[in-house]
């Protein structure tokens, strides 16, 4: 097979921009490597997104049909940005990008399973359970099995099951691999088995099932896999350091035939082990694909050399890594500021004082971010900023789709689409409250099988009438699904169940909650398709697949406060990293360094440093109140790993590293 790249050639598309224009040497090399396996190490600020999008545009320009190209990302936001950039590069050339598939791993899995639901063991219109739905179901199962929630918290069990699925370990494999002699494995196995049975009975999959079921489908039906291998002959994966075992298996199966697999990532920015990500996948790529071409994007366009040198010195203390040195043409810049203060309040006040100095000059509040290891650290910062009336924005608060009123209406829509979705049924059967008693509700739930009116002769008269009315409502909604477009359907639902009146009676924040409902109706307008069921189904899919990274940062003007995990992929002119103490950052659970946790904490600090374009401020407190008591922690070891020549230490108070 020839690995010679095709020449740049545009037929009938003179308005397509040259994908090679403006690239540096390494980026150009990555764009031109269109055949065979390619590993692209992309350091922070190295123009990764531009390289990926131009690479895909270049493949398109060579005459490859767009439907043969697959690009997988980790967030819908990243996928949308990639689509827009490729569309811009392609210009208005008719059909140039039609059929090009860009989406998340989970969206790809949904697409595969929707097309082969029967073969995968599901009925059409299956429901996708989000994390809250999954936890609710685990709680029910543990309660039914008489499991002590204090001994085995449902959240811990749900997290463990999720981890097993990410490793493609089903209940049977779990029993075979670990045995069931000990109490926890035996308990977990029992819950896992019943949890999967309940999901299947509800014709539902949780997030992790989407990937696991897709891999299982491909393994069971080679012909189905072969059809997707023919379809996706050019596979591209962004953020490859964050893939888990299921995602790794899925993409490698798809790329196995034509071997045109390009992965982009940075092992130094692997910070999602808590989600099952295994950064060793990117380090082992050359083992998996011995003929892989390896390219390192080492020119940074974001930060000063001082910031890059500090980050490099820090990450150099990790034993497991791909060595690379970032450089920039932007000059050394200012030294990194470091300050130690008495306590967390003094830290917050110092941060505010330094931010005021910045905003008195050329910095706007939106140019500045305060990053912390855990969400709890924002409390004192918020308190001080509120006291001084300084604008700020918290990123990572309660998400739109997690708000009660939004979840209520989504549950109605899901149940209308999938009558077997008992989790949604249990959520909304008494919302708005209609006087259904507990006994009647339990009986109804045990007999509810879809559109048939259940037998509830023994239920009190009021409950009987309410249940009958609920049945009529669901019958009406299922009939309207085939006739009304998404936004009209949602409006009808809200009017029929008198949801606004319910909010007025149930909440002192009814106006704010109703505004969220109005926003949901506005969203539904985007899914008003000629085929009503398809539009509503797509709406529910997109809501289920929405991840935290996709949440809009809003239009508020202010200093951004967020966890370092939430800051991944973002950049700011000035960055404040607070709480640099042992036990805070690195986190207390990483201090024993079991399973490489300390190295992950160091990668997290690397990510924090490299969010900054111009200035970095580091701070720590001599004492900090945690869990109701005052604790004194030594300075973070990460501070001692940054060369002193790169630091400017505040004289008052002093600090000894």
Which percent band covers the strand fraction?
A: 5-15%
Q: What's the number of extended β-strand segments?
A: 17
Quote the distance from N terminus to C terminus. Answer: 57 Å
How are the strands of the largest sheet arranged? 11-12-10-13-14-9-17
Secondary-structure-based class equals alpha/beta
Q: From the coordinates shown, what is the CATH architecture of the largest domain?
A: 3-Layer(aba) Sandwich
Low-confidence stretches: 1-14, 449-457, 653-657
Multimeric state:
single chain
Q: How many helices?
A: 28
- The CATH topology of the largest domain corresponds to Rossmann fold
Please bin the fraction of helical residues: 40-55%
Radius of gyration: 27 Å
CATH class (first level) name of the largest domain: Alpha Beta
Q: Major beta sheet, specifics? A: 7 strands, parallel
What is the approximate shape? globular
Structure notes:
Residues 305-569 form the UvrD-like helicase C-terminal domain. Its EC number is 5.6.2.4. This protein folds into four domains: 25-110 and 216-297, 3-Layer(aba) Sandwich (Rossmann fold), CATH 3.40.50; 127-202, Orthogonal Bundle (Arc Repressor Mutant, subunit A); 305-398 and 554-649, Rossmann fold; 400-545, PCRA, domain 4 (Orthogonal Bundle). The strands form four sheets. Strands 11-12-10-13-14-9-17 form a seven-stranded parallel sheet. It has a six-stranded parallel sheet with strand order 3-2-6-7-1-8, sandwiched between helices. It is globular and about 80 Å long. The chain is built from 28 helices and 17 strands. By secondary structure, it is α/β, with parallel strands linked by helices. Helix 27 (597-609) links the parallel strand 13 and strand 14 (612-621).
């Amino acid at each position: 097979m020839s690995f010679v790249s095709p020449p740049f050639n545009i037929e009938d598309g003179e308005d397509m921009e040259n994908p090679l224009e403006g690239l540096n040497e390494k980026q150009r090399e990555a764009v031109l490597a269109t055949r065979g396996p390619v590993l692209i190490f992309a350091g922070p600020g190295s123009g990764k997104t531009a390289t990926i999008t131009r690479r895909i545009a270049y493949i398109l320009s060579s005459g490859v049909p767009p439907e043969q190209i697959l690009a997988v990302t980790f967030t819908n936001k990243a996928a949308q940005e990639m689509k827009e950039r490729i569309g811009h590069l392609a210009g208005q050339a008719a059909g140039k990008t039609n059929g090009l598939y860009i989406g998340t791993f989970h969206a790809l899995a949904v697409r595969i399973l929707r097309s082969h639901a029967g073969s995968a063991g599901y009925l059409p219109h299956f429901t996708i359970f989000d994390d809250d739905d999954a936890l609710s179901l685990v709680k029910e199962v543990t309660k039914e099995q008489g499991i002590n929630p204090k001994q085995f918290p449902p959240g811990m069990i749900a997290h463990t099951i999720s981890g097993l699925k990410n490793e493609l370990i089903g209940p049977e494999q779990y029993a075979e691999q670990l045995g069931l002699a000990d109490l926890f494995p035996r308990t977990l196995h029992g819950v896992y088995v019943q949890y999967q049975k309940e999901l299947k009975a509800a014709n539902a999959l949780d997030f992790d099932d989407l990937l696991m079921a897709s891999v299982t489908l491909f393994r069971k039906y080679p012909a189905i896999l072969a059809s997707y291998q023919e379809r996706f002959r050019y596979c591209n994966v962004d953020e490859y350091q964050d893939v888990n075992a299921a995602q790794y298996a899925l993409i490698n199966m798809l790329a196995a035939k034509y071997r045109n697999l390009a992965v982009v990532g940075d092992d130094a920015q692997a910070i999602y082990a808590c989600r099952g990500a295994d950064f060793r996948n990117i380090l082992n790529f050359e083992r998996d694909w011995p003929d892989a071409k390896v390219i390192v994007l080492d020119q940074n366009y974001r930060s000063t050399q001082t910031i890059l040198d500090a980050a490099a010195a820090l990450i150099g203390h990790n034993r497991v890594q791909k060595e690379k040195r970032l450089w920039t043409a932007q000059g050394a810049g200012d030294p990194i500021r470091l300050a130690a203060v008495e306590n967390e309040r003094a830290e917050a006040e110092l941060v505010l004082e330094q931010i005021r100095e910045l905003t008195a000059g050329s910095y706007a509040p939106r140019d500045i971010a305060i990053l912390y290891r855990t969400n709890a650290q924002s409390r004192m910062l918020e308190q001080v900023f509120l006291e001084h009336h300084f604008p700020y924005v918290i990123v990572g608060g309660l998400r739109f789709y997690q708000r009660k009123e939004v979840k209520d209406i989504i549950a109605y829509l899901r149940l209308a689409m999938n009558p077997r979705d008992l989790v949604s049924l249990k959520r909304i059967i008494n919302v708005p409250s209609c006087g259904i008693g507990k006994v009647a509700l339990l009986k109804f739930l045990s007999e509810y099988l879809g559109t048939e009116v259940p037998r509830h002769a023994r239920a009190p008269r009021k409950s009987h009438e309410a249940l009958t009315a609920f049945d009529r409502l669901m019958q009406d909604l299922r009939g309207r699904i085939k006739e009304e477009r998404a936004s009209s359907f949602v409006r009808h639902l809200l009017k029929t169940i008198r949801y606004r009146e319910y909010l007025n009676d149930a909440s002192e924040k009814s106006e704010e909650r109703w505004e969220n409902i109005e926003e949901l109706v506005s969203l539904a307008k985007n899914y008003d398709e000629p085929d009503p069921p398809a539009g509503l189904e797509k709406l529910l899919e997109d809501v289920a697949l929405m991840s935290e990274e996709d949440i809009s940062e809003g239009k508020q003007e202010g200093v951004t406060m967020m966890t370092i995990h939430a800051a991944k992929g973002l950049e700011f002119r000035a960055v404040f990293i607070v709480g640099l103490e042992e036990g805070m950052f690195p986190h207390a659970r990483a201090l024993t360094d079991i399973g490489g946790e300390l190295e992950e904490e160091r990668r997290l600090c690397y990510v924090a440093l490299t969010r900054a374009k111009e200035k970095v401020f580091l701070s720590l407190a001599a004492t900090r109140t945690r869990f109701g008591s005052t604790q004194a922690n030594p300075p973070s070891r990460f501070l001692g790993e940054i060369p002193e020549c790169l630091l400017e230490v505040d004289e008052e108070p002093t600090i000894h590293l």
